[in-house]
Specification:
Layout (H helix, E strand, L loop, with lengths): L10 H23 L6 E5 L5 H9 L4 E6 L2 H8 L8 E4 L12 E7 L8 H11 E12 L9 H9 L15 H10 L3 E14 L2 H8 L6 H5 L3 H12 L3 E2 L5 E13 L3
Parallel strand pairs: 1-2, 1-4, 2-3, 4-5
Antiparallel strand pairs: 5-8, 6-8, 7-8
Length: 262
């Protein structure tokens, strides 16, 4: 796929800012899928390998492949000893470099809103999965306020700033996911909403991990120190902060699964 308007050129930063969130929602997602062990998996838009690692640990795959357009993120994944058995490829979700029927399951984890043509991406997953196999995805409900960094994005917009957004924002809505899976001819389509909660020891930790990634950092770099301080105060009012200063924050993702017709 063409480069996103959000840069992904720092695997360490992405994993610190989004990797933990990805693993939290991914564990619930995998429990819901209940796919038996010994399957051939493709992780489309694998990034730093956060979800790929969950697959390696929890589903005992017979084969595990990840594909992503960002070489910096793939380098991070390849350097992870826990993913030594996985094969990582640089490539486009809209033109998967695999033959038909090669996998038992294909997944997009927090990716579908980055695909310029989501319908083409879903069709490609269905093409490379065998009949009876599973095609599935989950994504933050960006427009519904489910994104982990939604409080910061909302206050940036209220202050007149425009943080970068994925090219296909809205593809993550439940009705959009249902339509994409139906239009791809997938069967037994089932949706699921997943909410996950993360605790931070203080606001500074929440702020540091939430602004280290490409979706927020470029906008902050254009702001004056005074405006950043104002933004921080405004974001504080949106968060649940207890008497000890801990921040407890909840994010929400929409998930969907379907099977390739026999």
């Amino acid at each position: 796929m063409p480069p996103s308007t959000i840069p992904f050129n720092d695997g360490d930063a992405y994993d610190l800012g989004m990797g933990t969130w990805s693993r939290l929602v991914g564990e619930t997602f995998l429990d819901w899928l209940a796919v038996p062990p010994g399957q051939r998996w493709l992780d489309v838009g694998c990034g730093t390998g956060a979800f790929t690692g969950l697959l390696a640990r929890h589903v005992a795959p017979a084969a595990l492949h990840g594909i992503d357009p960002a070489e910096a993120q793939l380098a991070f994944a390849r350097a992870n000893p826990a993913l030594a058995a996985a094969q990582f490829h640089e490539g486009d979700a809209q033109a998967l470099p695999f033959p038909a029927d090669q996998f038992d399951a294909a997944v997009m984890a927090l990716v579908i809103f980055f695909v310029p043509d989501p319908a083409r991406g879903v069709a490609e997953m269905a093409r490379v999965v065998r009949p009876g196999g599973i095609v599935t995805a989950y994504a933050w409900d960006m427009l519904g306020g489910g994104f982990p960094f939604a409080p910061i994005r909302a206050e940036l917009q209220a202050m007149g700033a425009t943080p970068p957004a994925p090219p296909s924002i809205g593809a993550d809505r439940m009705d959009a996911l249902r339509a994409l899976w139906a239009d791809a001819g997938l069967q037994a389509v089932a949706p699921r909403e997943i909410a996950v909660t993360r605790s931070f020891p203080d606001f500074d930790t929440f702020w540091a991990t939430s602004t280290i990634t490409g979706s927020i950092r470029p906008t902050l770099a254009t702001m004056s120190p005074g405006d950043v301080a104002t933004l921080q105060q405004r974001v504080r009012t949106r968060l649940a902060i207890d008497a000890a200063g801990r921040v407890v924050h909840t994010a929400r993702a929409n998930a969907i699964k379907g099977t390739v017709p026999a």
